[in-house]
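User: Hey, quick favor. My workstation is busy. Could you predict this chain's structure for me?
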Amino acid sequence: MGFRDELEKRILIGEGAMGTLLYSHGIDFCYEELNLMNPEQVEKIHKAYAEAGADILQSNTYGANYFKLKRYGLEDEVSKINRAGIQITRKASGEGCFVFGTIGAARSFRKSDLTLDEIKRGFREQLYSLLLEDPDGLILETYYDFEELAAVLKLARKETSLPVIANVSLHELGYLQNGMHLTEALRHLEGEGADAVGINCRLGPHHMVRALEEVPLPAHSYLAAYPNASLPDYEDGRLVYQANPEYFGQKALELRLQGARIIGGCCGTTPLHIEQVKKSLAGLKPVSEKKVKSRKIEVMEQEPVSASAEMPLARQAEKERTILVELDPPKKLGISPFLKGAEVLKKAGAHALTLADNSLATPRISNISLGTMLKANGINPMIHITCRDRNLIGLQSHLMGLATLGLNEILAVTGDPSKIGDFPGATSVYDVSSFDLIGLIKQFNEGLSYSGQPLGQKTRFSISAAFNPNVRYLHKAVERMEKKITFGAQSFLTQPIYSEKQIDEVYEATRHINAPIFIGIMPLTSTKNAEFIHHEVPGITLPGSVRKAMALAGNDRLQAAREGIAIAKGLVEKAMEKFNGIYLITPFMRYELTEELTKFVDKVDTARKAEVNANAL
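Assistant: No problem, here it is.
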């Protein structure tokens, strides 16, 4: 009897966790490598599940793709590991057991790490390896990223007619990471040809039942449920699942009532859990109809824009000259000089002050606190956010705090690594890349958290990103810029530029970019400052004429500053010919330098407008 025929008649019991048992035996390296190193141990676990009553055994190949095996230096063993996985499972399977090849997700939190094309290439290699051993079907599991699952399912369906089980994973009850409701997601997977659609991992049996309460029975496929044993606890550096097998078996009855036709286990489950599922469901037929719990549709609110609200800087720079000035938060307590500088720059004509997020990996006063104070004083702040200091939880909390305070101008950057700062031993988090952070902020603007849970309101963030033109291959930097735009970036701030020729090059390379670009200009303060930037700051090369001019200025502080200002004014004039956005970077809190440059921008603008008007007459 074939799998599809069996599934039509009865509830099939899936296998439980493989990694949980291997971990309990002290194995903390690549589980999939055991298919080659110790196949007897893997076979023993499969046999235990078969004896417990599992109808579907799945190969120990969850992470046996190129990307995950590469972490262990095993990227050349993809085919061997996957083929051995099916062979071992087949050997362990009892009479009537179906052998399914397991393919897990490749993407993690950092969605930007792998493109869909890369994922598909890796998926094909794993898929073809499994198919060579003639499994009874495939199970795609633990996919948080729906885009990835939809893509690989479509590919699998194109390459084979074997039965396919497609399981999503949820951070939040009932909603996927992209905000899609579980019902819509499973319906889409069914439409792509999955024989069974469902959920696995993350949720314990209680919450998995609740998630399925809002899901109607599929029209052309069947529901699958592979809950974790429970929510995990953390003891002595290990994740521990407390739910006992009897409870798990009782919950299988509730999963059946929600229409689950395949019931297995994920993290924390053992053969004892599967045995209890088999015992609880003995003699029971699958349900053919169910009452679906109506789900609450949350209306996303958005605060009305007040008449006094600042125009987003990106929109402003599309129409007219816009000046940003960076003023670093102080390293020490006491903010009087900072506030004085901010007021001076505002009066000089700066449209916004940008506040770095612990620049150079050095502790500074929180930019969110200073931004709140500036806003209260009528100064528009742009808050930098790095990926370095906060994990995914902290980043979302930070964004909600910024939205609550009305600090809507954001610059999303990677952040300097901790090792270059005052505390080189501190942890650099980097849960997400700058691309992912931009995407997260965009998702907040759509009213969704990273987990897909509605936030209750849509945020109003204007999303800026960094653009570094100080690279050997400018077209590569432009490609990163284009990628950031696809993730949601609306404008760009460049690293400091010290060459008029380079400004022309940036203009030519980015003429096709519609997003406003703010050209970064930082006045030099001394010949030592110039030589340091030239020799020690990665990617920045000062023209010989600039270094010579600074050297001739000598060691006199005022004379050196005057020369630095003169060089910066030339760069500002050049930038103003090509770009509306000017980004002035204040060196060492010497705001009098950026004050003069800000006034100079206004002076040049006024003169050029007067000339245009005169010519028009």
